[in-house]
Hints:
- By secondary structure, the chain is α/β, with parallel strands linked by helices.
- The protein folds into 3 domains: 4-137 and 303-338, NAD(P)-binding Rossmann-like Domain (Rossmann fold); 143-299, Dihydrodipicolinate Reductase, domain 2, CATH 3.30.360.10; 351-436, ACT domain (Alpha-Beta Plaits), CATH 3.30.70.
- The protein is built from 16 helices and 18 strands.
- Strands 7, 8, 9, 10, 11, 12, 13, 14, 15, 16, 17 and 18 form a 12-stranded mixed beta sheet that branches. A 6-stranded parallel beta sheet has the order 3-2-1-4-5-6, sandwiched between helices.
- Helix 6 packs parallel to helix 11 (200-214) and helix 8 (160-172) packs across helix 9 (176-185).
- The chain is elongated, with a radius of gyration of 24 Å.
- The chain starts with a strand and ends with a strand.
Amino acid sequence: MKPIQAGLLGIGTVGGGVFNVLRRNQPEIRRRAGRGIEIAMVADLDTERARSVVGEGVTVVNDARAVIANPEIDIVIELIGGYGIARRLVLDAIEAGKHVVTANKALLAVHGTEIFAAAQRKGVMVAFEAAVAGGIPIIKALREGLTANRIQWIAGIINGTTNFILSEMRDKGLDFDVALKQAQALGYAEADPTFDIEGVDAAHKATLMCAIAFGVPVQFERAHVEGITKLTAQDIRYAEELGYRIKLLGITKRSGDGIELRVHPSLVPTRRLIANVEGAMNAVMVQGDAVGTTLYYGKGAGAEPTASAVIADLVDIARLHSADAAQRVPYLAFQPDAMSDLRMLSMSEVVTSYYLRMRVADEAGVLARVTGILADAGISIDAVRQREADEIGGEGSTQTDLIILTHDCLEARMDTALAAIQKLPTVLAPVVRIRKEELA
């Protein structure tokens, strides 16, 4: 059978990895797909560099629209990134009847509803395994492997940059700024790391997993997003002493009369496998009613791990290229006419437990006033630790740290309690609040 022809938009780090892995493993890929898969055309603004990667026999152009317009191209691989030109090119490719493979989580998290609707109208596939957790096949697991399950929750370390930073802060006692500079020096963090350290990248990925797990439209704008910039080495150390590690988690959960979608730092018990995922690695836990808890672990970024996911999508398309569109796996796992209208819960409606750290005056009655406010808000306490004053400010210090772990409570109640605690004259600095996830 004639090889299926693909056009590649963007041949940077990931694009080069896709081209090289596809060429290196072509015999194995052909055996699996039932036909060859060839990148016949590449579009990149730096045509000279692109030609140095692909060599002879591949057409290189500087205009992506030339790839889309080529009637010989069956699949368009979009590796440009971003929301702008990538959106237009993906929609143009769909309109031209091309299948699309993309690693662009930001594009799909923000414009996925429009893109999937366009693809359904044209009867083409949009595949995006590489958009979440790099080489970990979590999209296929959610869409196909766990299809018998009613998914209850997902919690994932889905940004390698932040996980590397938190690992360095814990292992070496580094402050956030120092760990970030180290991540940048090693190539784990971009020169502008905002999307990573503020949790936006993880929220894009969590949005896609949420849609697939619960059959709801992609709704990035409803996600609660917090990053790691306010974390201190002190809190990481205190958490460790209490039997927890702090991880930036993307969480989506079926809860009450809606769906939770949130990204924020979380205390996770050290006995959980996911708490021991270190460096730039990713891991995703999925809880299903039939299968129980499953864990998916691996590299979340890099040229060849991401290429592995892109090529898996290419193989799927090669297998199903001529199949009736109605028989293909739906983009978001559920049939388009069976999507749910479950509402997304606001953060104030979420129930979870908390780690609280307060810098307080070292005098009698402080703890009683704080615990009284929590009790009045209906918040029960799991554990209390008070540091020795000389640990905080040296001998003769009049300040200390009060650390409280709570049981589950409504976030709105915690907001009210913290506002009252912050007004106490004996509370000397902003209260640190970090949510706690047992993941049991």
